[in-house]
Every structure is written in structure tokens, then in C-alpha cells.
Amino acid sequence: MNVVEMRGITKCFGSFTANDNINLVVKKGEIHALLGENGAGKSTLMNILFGLYQPEQGKVFIKEKEVAITGPTMANKLGIGMVHQHFMLVQPFTVTENIILGDERASGGRIDYKKAEREVQALSDQYGLQVDPRAVVADIGVGMQQRVEILKTLYRGADILIFDEPTAVLTPQEIEELTEIMRKLVKEGKTIIFITHKLKEIMSTCDRCTVIRRGKMIDTVNISETNENELASLMVGREVSFELDKQPSNPQEPVLKVQSLAVDDNRNNPAVRGLDLEIKAGEIVGIAGVDGNGQSELIEAICGLMKPKSGRIILNNKDVTGLAPRKITETGLGHIPEDRHKRGLVLDFSVSENIILQSYYKKPFSNGFGINYKAVGDYANKLIQEFDVRTPDKDTPARALSGGNQQKAIIAREVDRNPSLLIAAQPTRGLDVGAIEFIHKRLIQHRDTGNAVLLVSLELEEVLKVSDRVAVIYEGKIQGWVDPRTATEEELGLLMAGSKAKGGASQ
Amino acid sequence: MIGKLNRNSTLLSSIISIILGMLVGAIAMLLSGYDPISAYGALFSSVFGSASDMGETLRTITPLIFAGLAVALAFRTGMFNIGVEGQLVIGSLAAAFVGLKLELPPVLHAIVALVVGALAGAIWALIPGLLKAIRGVHEVIVCIMMNWIALFLSNYMVGKVLSNNSDSTEKIHPSASIRVDFLTDMFDGARVHLGLILAILTTIFVYVLLFRTKLGYELRAVGLNPDASEYAGMSVKRNIILSMMISGGIAGLAGAVELLGTSEYLAINPSLPGTGFDGIAVALLGANTPIGVVLSSMLFGGLFNGGSNMQYVAEVPFEVIRIVFAAIILFVAANFVKQLGNRKNRKKKGEKASA
User: Fold this and answer.
1) Exposed, middle or buried: residue B316 (CB in 10 Å: 0-12, 13-18, 19+)?
2) What is the 3 state secondary structure string of A361-411?
3) At A291, is the secondary structure helix, strand, or coil?
4) Which of A65, A426, B108, B237 has the fewest beta carbons closer than 10 A?
5) Which of B217, B219, B347 to substitute to test the interface with A, most A CBs within 10 Å?
6) Residues A179-193: what's their mean pLDDT?
7) What are phi and psi of A505, to 5 degrees?
């Protein structure tokens, strides 16, 4: 049976067509992937299914009956539930309180919490979610919170579950567990639509996959009859090489030396605890680790954005410990920040104003007093061209660009200054395959021109692929080094969890 | 292209807000038994009526431009300078001091008085700026307190230092005055003075500062995203302090101009003059752009001046003008008109697409 069928769906926002005559058929009991680059129209399509948008054209059938879904309440009634990427939970409430929120089954104005708790427990047991109905949401981890979101849809009787990029916030282990849960849900007769742009997950979890590109449906394929390369080229519209064209590194003299560095985090708890690190010109050093093991503080201390408590940072043979950010930048540092909206861009500045963010005070952009906006514009146009930043023009606000193009603008700015050390923190987070490919190439190119690159990422695959040497950070220290050509994810996983490396690989 | 569209719609929504605000004023008049048509008639005829009326309108506009620019500049750096009021009072006081106590040749005397007035305002604004930058104290709290300190300091100085226990000072020396005969003659005896020209020069100065200089780039960056500015090696603290000082300097200049051009003496005041608070409204309606500030100052200046005339001619109380003023601000602040427009556009586009 076709549980969901969307026929000829068209949705426009102004002159922009987000969905152009899309067809989607989801069969009962399958995990159906919806694959597409950022901005391809996946979320629009699902928001139509969930009743948040009304399509201009097209029909929706649920369980082979034509319906007009006028809003989320209607969608709930039809058995459609959505697990949002950004959780919609009330932090100080318990799990049960959150689950019944908006669907309180009260009698005479009184809510029977005991009964609600029993129902939540029963649902949790049935699907193996292992959720404690009495736990306070603020006290439970991200993975557990996601299960609460799943329970919310189940409690409302959903049998079609939409998962909106559910793995973006999870650790590898949690992803594994989520996959199990999804399998169990399907076994119990539910149907799942899984929105993602991660190909590995689709290959390992899904039954069929519908690919959307620039608002158009490209194809629906059976996972058993396809592979990652085919999916990627369907999604991007051209061949994508997963193999990086990368020569062996040619390390020269050290560029960065970090010696027994200690840094406290914002709440004055130790985050980096006596860390040592050395990076040489002509190599890419990757730092792998579970989020929150001191990565952010290490980067911010090197860049001068946080004051180290003790230890030394030497950049290009100059002690830069505790210097102001601009002094360090001028010593030869480029930094692609992990949060591009917080640190990387002034979103309401134009693209060209953002491109000079690190060099506006220097010639030819400024003579010390005025700013030569003609020179700025010419330079911005040059970089937009060279780094393929897709923007209507240089005067468009950075806010209006897609994430990938915002990131390209930052990389253009940082790389073009040719810093002897480039720090790339989560450079591809939330980006699609095409943009990731571009950014990896640029990092390697930067290395090949004789500079050092420090890559910090939570994506193991990325760290292993791009780096020449990989350090694992654990509780603010380097736990061990591995050779990315020979290391296995298992080996890395053990180090990330705090066990010592056997035989102590390279350094 | 996008920027242009936005700017146009801001202008359009401002105009609609103004019309709506005047309608609210008309309703208020009807409810209290006045005739809005004759009232607004009196208002407009007095704005554009005679040369002397126009001159008085221009005089009313002058301090609003300064105050609006001061508020807008601080806003751009993320600071809410609600202390323009106090900085203006201090600027007046300092200019009065120079105008009364110093003996200098004509042109020089006025220039010294203006410069000292601006400096006094800048120093008054430095205090909330420093407290914000160094200790993180919210500038609004400090500014409001500084306003009252300024008022009572000025009153004390008028009574004890600048006069002998009188409630006002003598007139300043003619050498310090910025009234000029040709303007007075041109506008048939109205109190319009060189302050108007200074206001226009200050507008150009603020525009160039914000959009053509390195400092302006930094000020705007800090206002829009302090984290990214810090990352780019700018000193957020330094920019906060500078922005407050320049803003305070413009406010101080406003006070000095008012004293040297309009009143020519300083009196004890029971309450704050209110120009600084009007400046907040002016900046808001002008979307924090220099040219917008000038345009909205013209509107509010016209309303104020015409409104006082309305009292005599149509016998409608001046408070009605305050209602109009407040209603316009409310419509602008609530972004009412813009949202209405957006919704209509969306509907239209939807219909077209489905057709």
C-alpha cells in the first residue's frame, strides 16, 4: 500500500520555485530517504506534507485517499508525525510533561500524570526507546531528547514519521542506536521518511531513496541496487569524486608549537589541560575527538580569543601567548571559525564588506582613515570569481547566501591572505557534497603551497581523509596520534573514549 | 537591487505610518469635540505659510536633526544612547559658561563655545560608555541617571555660579551668538540661526564617518556582530567608547547650538527638555540613516511648530500633536505597515502562481 503519495507538487516563494512538479511515493513499512543538497527543496516538500505550507499545485494522498492537509493538527489526525531537527522541548519539564504537551488528556480539568507516565513507559518499552518518563529534559542528553521527540509523535498515534536530518546532532554511537530504533519502528508497522544528505546513512538504513535537485524530483531508486557514487551524482548533478587527489605531505620546519597549554572554558572549568602540539609547514594535522573535549578552547586560545591559563603558543618562531587577536593574525594565522554565523561573518554586511573583515585597515583598502570601497569591490569580485561564491552580487548581504556559499566567502577571505597556519574548525558542517569537495581541495592546496593546516572536525571520515597526521583529543589533552592511511575508525573510537594508543604511533 | 527595494519599502511604510498617525490624531480630535480639518489646516498653513513661519519651523528642526543623528550613530554601534538628553543639557551649560565668562573676538568666541559644548557632551557620554565597556553596566541605566545629574547640575550652576541666585542667566555676549542678520532677514525675523547649517554639515559628517571611513566600518561591524568583530581583531570596547563619545559630542553640539542661537541665555528648568527623547523617535522613523534622520526631523519639526500654531488658530490643544507623534512612532516600531504589505504581496504572488 502507498501510505503517502504526493503527485505533481509545486510550491513557489515569490519568483523562486522551491518544489517543481514533485512526485513522491512512500510504501507502507519502508524507510524512505529524501536526499538532496541544502536548499534543494526537501524541507519544503515535508512542510507541505505536515500542513505547514499549502502547495500551489498537486495532490496529496494518505493511505490512498486524497486529502488536503491544512495544518499540523490535521497532519496529526492523519497519522503524520514530524521529528524536528531542532527539538521543540520545554527544558524544565519532565519527559512525560513534554510528551503530553498540546495533547493533554484531562478529565474534569485534571491531568492524570500517573496514567500518562504509564502510557509513555509502555510506548517506550514497545519500541525499545529506554526513556525514563520522569526524567527532566534539561538533564538528559541530546540522543535521549531526540527519543522524546519520537515518543511525542507516537503518543499522538503517528504511523508515518518524518525525521528531519536526525543524525546531524548525534555522535556515531547515538547514530547506531537511532538506526536500531528506526528498524524497530518499521518492524512494528510504522513508515519512516528520512531527510538527510549523508549518503552512508542512507546506504545502511533505508529501503528506497528519492533524490531532489533544485526543486525537481530526479529519481527514486532502490538502495539495494545503487551505491554511494550513484546517489551523489544524482544529488549534485555531476560526477563527484570521493577520493581526494592528494600527494604525500612534505613537512618542513615547525610553524606552530603549543607547549603544555591550559585553558579554562567560559564557566572557568578547565577545558584544555596541558596540551602539546606541533604542526609543520606543508602538512595538515587533524584533531579528532568527541565534542566538548577542549577543541573550541584550544582554537580560541591559539587565535587570541581566549586567554590561556598557562603554557606557551609559538607561531612562526614568535611567542604569541595571550597576544591580541590582530597581532596573532598578522603573525601568520588564518582561521575558519567553527560557528560561521557567530564569529565568521557579519551577516548584515554585504559579501564584499565581509571579504575585507580581516584586512579592511590595510592598503589598498584603507589609507588609515577612509575606506576605498572601489578597491574593496574589485577585490571582492575577484575572490567571488576565484572561489566560486554564488551570490547575486558583491553587495548582497551575507545573510542571503546559502551556508555553503557563506563558508566559501570565509575561506576565500582566510586563504587569500596566505597565512602560514590555517585553522579550519568544522569547515564543512552542514554543507552538501559539492561544497565539501571544494573545501577539502582548498585545504590541500593551501598545504601544497608550503603552509600548515590545523583541521578540527567531529566528522571522523573527514579528519581521516584530509589530514596527514591525526591527533585525538580527550579531556583537553592529546590522547594519541594515528596515521590516517592505516588507522581504523575503531582504533580512533577507542582513543576518543580515553584509552591509550598501543605502540604510540607517529609524532 | 535587494537593498534598493528594501529602502523603498522602508520609505513607503514610513509615509503610510505618518498618514495613519495623523488619522489617529484626527480621531482623537473628533472624540474630544474638535474639528480635525480646521486643525490640520491651521497646522499646515503655519508650516508653509509665511517666511517667518518657515523660519521658525527650520529652527525647530535643527536640534531634532542633531539629536536624531546622535541616537542613530550610537544605535549603529549597538548602543542605545538614551542619554542624549543629558548630554544636550551639559552642552548648553558649557556653551553658556563660555558665552558668559569668556571675552573673545566675535567669530572665535562662537567657535570656542561650540567646541566646548560638544566636548562637554562627549565627556558626559564617556561615562556610560566606559562603564559599559569595562564593567558591562547597561548603558540605558547609566544614561538615565546621567540625564538627571545633568539637569540638576545645570540648574545649580545657573543659580549659584552663572547668576546671583536668579532663575536665569544674563544674555551671552553678542560675540558668542550664532544668529546672523541675513538669515533673520531672509525669514522675516524668525529665530533661525547658523545651527541649521551646522546640522546639515553634521549630517554629512555622520554619513561619511559611517560609510566611508575605517572607523565607521568598525563601528557598524561591532554594532551588528561583536563576536565577529573581536575575531577580526577589532577592539569592541574601544569602539563602544568612541561611538558613545561621538554621539555625545553631537548631542552636546545640539545643546550649544540651541543656547547660542535660539535662547541666548540659560534658565533653571523644572524638567528635562525632551529633545533627546524626540531624537530617539526621529532616529527610529529615519531608520538610523543620516538622510532619514533629516527627513523625519523635518516632519516632526513641522508638526511641533505647526502644532503650537494650531493651538491659537483652531484652539486645539498641543497634546493632540503629541498623540499624532506617538501614533506614528507606534506604527513604525510595530512595523505594522510593512507586514501588511508583505502579506498582500504573498497572497498576490500565490494567486498568480496558481493561475
Assistant:
1) buried
2) CCCCCECCCEECHHHHHHHHHHHHHHCCCCCCCCCCEHHHCCHHHHHHHHH
3) coil
4) A65
5) B217
6) 93
7) -60, -170
Q: Which three cell numbers stand for residue A428?
A: 564543512
Give the total residue count for chain B: 355
| CB-based contact, A371 to chain B, within 8 Å | yes
Condensed to tens digits (0 to 9), the pLDDT of residues A406-438 reads 999 999 999 999 999 999 999 988 777 788 889
- Among chain B residues, the shortest Cα distance to A329 is held by B233
**Is CATH 3.40.50.300 correct for A2-236?**
yes
Residues in contact with A320: Cβ distance below 8 Å, sequence separation at least 6, in sequence order: A304, A313, A314, A327, A328, A331
- Give residue A17's pLDDT: 83
Q: Is A19 on the interface with B (CB under 8 A)?
A: no
- Mean pLDDT, chain A, as a whole number? 90
Nearest Cβ partner for A329 among B227, B229, B233: B233
Cα(A144)–Cα(A99) distance, rounded to whole angstroms? 13
* Rounded Cα gap, residues B101 and B179, in angstroms: 19
How far apart, in whole angstroms, are the C-alpha atoms of residue A67 and residue A77? 12
Using a CB-CB cut-off of 8 Å, the residues of chain A touching B353 are 10, 12, 56
Q: Judge whether A326 is closer than 8 Å to chain B, CB to CB.
A: yes
* CA distance, residue A483 to nearest chain B CA (Å): 32
Cβ under 8 Å to A: B residues 195-214: 212-214
Q: What ipTM does this complex have? A: 0.83
CATH architecture of B54-296: Orthogonal Bundle (1.10)
The residue among A126, A202, A162, A122 whose CA lies nearest residue A26 is A162
Residue of chain B nearest A305, judged by CA positions: B231
| Residue extents of the structural domains in chain A | 2-236, 341-418
DSSP structural state of residue A206: -
A100: which 3 cell numbers?
A: 503530553
Q: Give me the pLDDT at residue A501, please.
A: 55
SS3 sequence, B203-267?
HHHHHHHHHHEHHHHHHHHHHHCHHHHHHCCCCHHHHHHHHHHHHHHHHHHHHHHHHHHHHCCCE
Question: How is chain B split into domains, by residue range?
Answer: 54-296
Cα B302–B307–B309 angle (5° rounding)? 105
Q: How many helices (H) and strands (E) does chain B have?
A: 15, 0
A393 touches chain B (CB under 8 A): yes
pTM over 0.90: no
What residues in A contact B232, CB-CB < 8 Å? 325-326, 357-358, 360
Host H or E run for residue A18: strand A16-27
For the stretch B89-124, pLDDT in tens is 999 999 999 999 999 998 999 999 999 999 999 999
Q: Is the pLDDT of residue B283 over 90?
A: yes
**Binary contact (B221, A349; C-beta < 8 A):** yes
Angle (CA) A185-A187-A188 rounded to 5° is 65
Which of A27-36, A181-190, A324-333, B339-348 has the weakest average pLDDT? B339-348
Distance from CA of A324 to the nearest CA of B (A): 7
- What would the DSSP string read from start to end of A72-122? HHHHHHTTEEEE-SS----TTSBHHHHHHTT---EETTEE-HHHHHHHHHH
Instruction: Confirm or reject contact between A349 and chain B (CB < 8 A).
Output: yes
**Distance to chain B for A138, nearest Cα, Å:** 27
Nearest to B227 among A342, A349, A393 (CB): A342
